[in-house]
Amino acid sequence: MLALVSCNKDGDLVTVGRGDALTLDGSNNIVLDPSNATGLALTLHWNDNHQLSTNYVDVLVPDGTISNRLQISRTADFASCYTLEMNNGVYQKQFTNAELNGELTKLGYEPNKQEPMYVRVTSTTGPNIEPQCSNVMEFQVMTYHIDYTYGTAVATDKTTPIGTLYSPTEDGIYTGFMSLGAWSNWWFVENDGTVWGNNDVTGKAYELSNSSTAWNLWSSAHNGCRYVTFNTKQKFWTDLSIPTVKVSGDLEGEMTYNKETMQWTMTYTAESTSPVTVKFSSPDSKLYNVASGDNEQNGEAETKPLYFTSTGISTSEAEGITLTAPQTGDCTVTIDLSGKTPAYSIEAGAAEGPEELSPILYVLGNDDKWDYNEWIRLSDEDHKTYTGAVYMNSSWGYYFSKELNDWNNINQDPDTSDKKLKVTGSNDCNIPAPGKGLYVVSASLGWMSYWYEMDGAQVTSVSYVGFNDNWDATEMTATETPGVYTATVSITGDTPWGVQLYVNGSWQYTFGTRADGTLTWNSKDNGNPVGIDGNGTYTFTVDICHGTYSLTK
């Protein structure tokens, strides 16, 4: 590696050495145990090679110049290998049974067959410099079978399932239909335990990372049905939104989507029970991907018409589907997207509409009071999820209630220690309360589960961004009332994108202003918040426990 600098005289060359030679060492025997997925299977370590020297003692090379990569291969030539970028200053790597088995399976290792595994560390000091390689270690390893034919989309708690994507050939590319609200946050988990999120280094929407520091994934501004392609090999995903489905052929019309059941339906009057052939298409579907961004980065996504077939979707033409009505009179044609492939049917009667949800869910007992004065707000209509800050100071636990003075308690499910809910109507199994303090609580009546946002951390601060289109965070002042914060805001211009509240200083944990004066977890309305009446000085008050805000001039 050569670099030009000014030394004793102009034109002197400074040469940089390669650094210390790499020596890799580790345990010799590997026994992958499927019954102990989190147990250690392999420990590797190598020498500290970060120090570089030059031919001029006064010229120093900065830390981080050397980049180390750990490589694992099925063949000694490393023609195809698993490569792991190592952080600066890290000189060892441990693999659990599940982690190593998963990576080896993706490299093509056959289950229950002993095969060699080759490991080395490579070191580079620049993009055009030939890498330096350590010694190669050879291990004998036997993998066990993992079912990669499907993976699971999970909520922000990384546990609660919200959808399934499929990979019939187990090639690491998963596809399928999902119901997601606008800007929904989620993760994707493979059956080897690998958790996929958004690339936190580039920050670009639709780029994937399985790093422990990855951000959660987020959907586009479209609310409802979409077809997702999740490519873990090339580390990207795409979101093909499906806002409408039109019916043509022997029947004509437009279908309605039920996000809860993942069904498109259209009610019509059947004149006979003779077979009909129909086609289903979505002419205004839009493709969101790395190139398009999430609708706020690089403009609108590409319009990409979608056509339904008996086995999935097509981007070229629709397939005629032949169906038979069970009766004359009111019937409903249905596309059910909850399985691996679309299921088509005609059923007797009119389609039922989605359940009308209450905007709030009551919380009782969190502060040893049972008075219906505390609640959290609807944050995800698709999965009947409510989220809000709750002040905890409870002696006997707490529970949720759907209606005022209903007393039909929604408690901890007594059949499990997991954070699951069950309608019990009794006080015998209240939800165990965390320690005293302010927490952001989510409860899903769709999944019948609950969790604490921010990995269970207490709320320590609230800041606002967005006023006057200024996205620098300003911390608010906590009042004596838990969850209520105030700030003095000078309005000097338009607030086109609404206002967000950063909880604990993080853009990943936010409440957003709505046009009706409410706050919603991880969502907002664009435009000036309610209460702004021209330029001037305002008192901005927020209540993240009850999900409200006000602006007083």
Please compute the radius of gyration using only Cα atoms.
28 Å
Q: Care to count the β-strands?
A: 48
- Cα shape: globular
Average pLDDT confidence is 88
- The figure for the number of domains is 4
Q: Can you walk me through this structure?
A:
The protein is an all-beta fold. It folds into four domains: 2-142, Immunoglobulins (Immunoglobulin-like), CATH 2.60.40; 147-252 and 266-350, no CATH class; 360-456, Immunoglobulin-like (Sandwich), CATH 2.60.40; 462-552, Immunoglobulin-like (Sandwich), CATH 2.60.40. The chain is 2% helix and 42% strand. The chain contains one helix and 48 strands. Strands 11, 12, 14, 15, 16 and 17 form a six-stranded antiparallel β-sheet that branches. Strands 20, 21, 24, 27, 28 and 29 form a six-stranded antiparallel β-sheet that branches. A six-stranded antiparallel β-sheet has the order 35-32-33-34-38-39, with no helix packed on it. Strand 45 (506-513) and strand 46 form a beta hairpin. The N and C termini lie far apart (63 Å).
